[in-house]
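Category: protein sequence paired with discrete backbone structure
Discipline: computational structural biology
Format: plain text, a pair of labelled lines
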Amino acid sequence: MNATSSPLSLPNTGHSLSPVTPNTSSRLPRPVWIAVLALACLPIGLLWDISHHSSIGRDTFWTPAHIIIQLGGIIPALMFGLIALKTTFRGSADEREGSISILSARAPLGAWVTIWGAFAMVTSAPFDDWWHNTYGLDVKIISPPHSILGVGMFFVGLGVLLFVFSAQNRATVLSEKQLGFLCALAVGVMVTMIADFTTEFTWPNAQHGSRFYYVMCTAFPLLLVMAARAAKVKWAATIAAGTYMLIFIFMIIALPLFPAQPKLAPIYNPITHMVPPAFPMLLILPALGLDILVARFSKATSVKPGSTVTAKTPWWSDWLLAMAVGVAYLAIVVVVQWPFSGFLLSDHADNFFFARSGHWPYFSNRGEWFNTFWTSGIEPLTAASLVLAFLRAFISARLGLGLGNYLHKLKR
């Protein structure tokens, strides 16, 4: 059966429930942008949920934040389930060729990964409810049920990335840049999700310690370099970092507009509105540097942006690029974030945009420590810790280049 004759396709519009055949239209396949929009529900819902716990305390499972998080996994999983049914029973030869088989069912690789992740997310919900009923309020973001939820969210995001990048690689020139832009946005959503889960390690108060730079150099270079290498659009890493910053800034401005009152003792920090997150890291500046490095290095080694990486590329080129990225990324982060964190703790940041100390929950004891750099239990930034941070950035960048090369060619 032809894809355009299927009842699950929209004739003459380029929209199809299963974008596994080459896209011959300049319009974006509907499942691609639906998947990216649904993915954005995950970090937004998570930020909302953190704010709910910080502003009100534990409530029932059926809070809007919890529902938004679960929808972020359920919507793409259901859509990909329909794609699997169509591809398995009514798919064209091209659609079946662009899929993989699991237990005789066929669907794109990203669809299967997302479905598994959504299953893990749904499984974590009753576990989280039992955990709170048994142990009460979370004092940390990372708990056993939240860890299961985080793993599920990660695989949902990974599946959407695989799906979107494979759609990009099957596209014509007319829609390639649009899909490349969506790929960069999807990576930005993943950056936001990682930033959500690392919140307790990235407070402005901790940004003069070594652990903050370890965290900054572990996951973020991987995602940003991956976007720069695989997304067929200029400034992909910058777009990804900008997406992360815009989501955080939107939540900083929007959440305090809603009234809230703590419902669970003890209350040390009385609040009257939803608590916003801390201001995001200035990732857009190191991301800009990575885009420039990857583009120039790729041009020098014949790895053209928007073209397939060929066998002519020297085997050592990505290792050298990863080393350059590690140095540049860490240098920019230190130069930018060190003074900016001081600004975030100053009176100049005491406003609705930068939010200063407004992100502290109601169960935090008020004090000068809200707006000072922490020293107790914080390892200072030293030459040795900078070397370790560089090694993390180097390994992260090398993995990002490897994944970027894979995503750049993925078509299933």
Remarks:
- DSSP finds twelve helices and two strands in the chain.
- Residues 7 and 383 are 63 Å apart (CA to CA).
